[in-house]
Amino acid sequence: MPGLLAKRWWRTTFGLVALVAIGFGIATLLVGAIAFGVVHEELEKQLDHRIAAETAALIDEGDDGPSGVATAIARRDAARSTASLEYRLVDAAGRRVAGKLDASVPSEPGYVELLSYTRDGERRIAQSLTTRLPGGHRLLVAADRAVIDEMDATMIRLFAGAFGAILALGIGAAWIVGAVTRARLARIDRTALAIIDGDLTQRMPITGQGDEFDRVAETLNRMLDRIGVLMDNLRQVSSDVAHDLRTPLTRLHNRLDEALSSVDRNVQLSAIEAARVQSRELLDIFAALLRIAEVEGLGSRVPFGEVALSHLVEGIVETYRPDMEAGGHILVTDISADLVLTGDRRLLQQLLTNLLDNALAHTPSDTTVTVSLKRIGSNNIGLVVADDGPGVQGDVTKLFERFTRGERSRTTTGHGLGLALVAAIAAAHRGNVHLSPPPGFCVSVELPG
Questions:
Q1: Peptide bond before residue 205 is cis, with ω within 30 degrees of 0
Q2: Cβ distance 74 to 87 under 8 Å?
């Protein structure tokens, strides 16, 4: 494992930042090399230009021939300074005529970039130009390259220092970034290990700085919250199934025992028929539970589309109107036109039918049932199904839990799953649902739209 990490060090935060620093350092070296070459070449050109200009000046001053050039050289040697050029004039036989430059004069005219010469007993290097004069004389004008060499050394030190500084800063930054990243990830890792060990109340730490780690932590926390809700739902379903299905399963078992123990054909048929009805009831309960689980898991939310909610609600209400009137109910509507939202038409239809089924089944005749659909603010739509019946006493919020029923509803058909499905559908559409206190019974659903 250590060998594998050593081979893949560049994939760590430290390695990545270090690689970036090395890249910047190499880029600095490349820029430095280019700048060095350009500056060095320009300095050599300037030195060549200075030598050529001085050669032309000497020839100009000595317009009467080599003797005049020798006189001009003598004047310059007499007034020389440390920045002065070096001169040597030789005749056709190579004998020195003028100048103090201690160097061999090239036999061919032209520039020599690296001319070796001696000054004060020290071997030095000069840049020179050799020019032929009348009578076979040769004029050598040279400039010491010490200035270029010093400039080259200065640039090399400058770019080497810049490279070292960038590399050092990069490695330091890599270490700091790596340390901070490891510390933040270590806290996330400890939290994740605690969750793995079973502490589902743990959440990823958030510093409040709003950086990338905080955004990832917030996303993970929302995911954990969602998982927590699903786990609670699973535990609730398991508890509800174990508690609320015990009685119908016991009745089914007793009916089957009755059929087996009786020799009377009519008794057997009656018991089997009762068992069939009870098994159908159990299947309906499981179908409703599965439907709620499907909606809560957002399995039905692929994909959502545009739903003309006003048209949908009007159609469902008109479908229920005959049953309402047959049961002695008064159905009143207040539906705004042209309300549209993004959602699942089938789920929204089931939400409203569940509410109308509840109103139809659990209220007495002469009850007024009101269905209203209005826009709330600029971004939401409110659907309200209310009645002026006896309402529900006690904690109405528990009615959204599975198998929960009001006291007056226990003698009617149903399993206490209708409002749980309504809440699940509203949540799947990123909406919410709540009950208003008595008098009457009022369910308000708020959906984004």
A1: no
A2: no
Nearest one of 147, 146, 140 to 55, comparing CA atoms: 140
User: What angle, 0 to 180 degrees and rounded to 10, lies between the N-to-C axes of helices 345-362 and 418-428?
Assistant: 150
Residue 417: how many other CB atoms lie within 10 Å: 24
* 160-165, long-range: CB < 8 A, 24+ apart: 162/28, 162/32, 163/25, 163/28, 163/29, 163/32
DSSP string across 118-163: EETTEEEEEEEEEEE-GGG-EEEEEEETHHHHHHHHHHHHHHHHHH
Q: Pairing mode, if any, of strands 380-387 and 110-119? A: unpaired
Tokens for 82, please give them.
């440390």
**Is it true that the peptide bond before 439 is cis, omega within 30 degrees of 0?**
yes
The answer to whether 87 and 140 have CB atoms below 8 angstroms apart is yes
Q: Judge contact between 280 and 299, C-beta under 8 A.
A: no
User: 444 and 382 in contact (C-beta within 8 Å)?
Assistant: yes
Question: Angle 345-362/309-326 helices, nearest 10 degrees?
Answer: 20
Distance in angstroms (rounded) separating the CA atoms of residues 260 and 70: 143
Give tens-digit pLDDT for 75-108: 888 877 656 788 888 888 888 888 888 888 898 8
Q: Which helix (H) or strand (E) holds 112?
A: strand 110-119
Confidence (pLDDT) at 274:
80
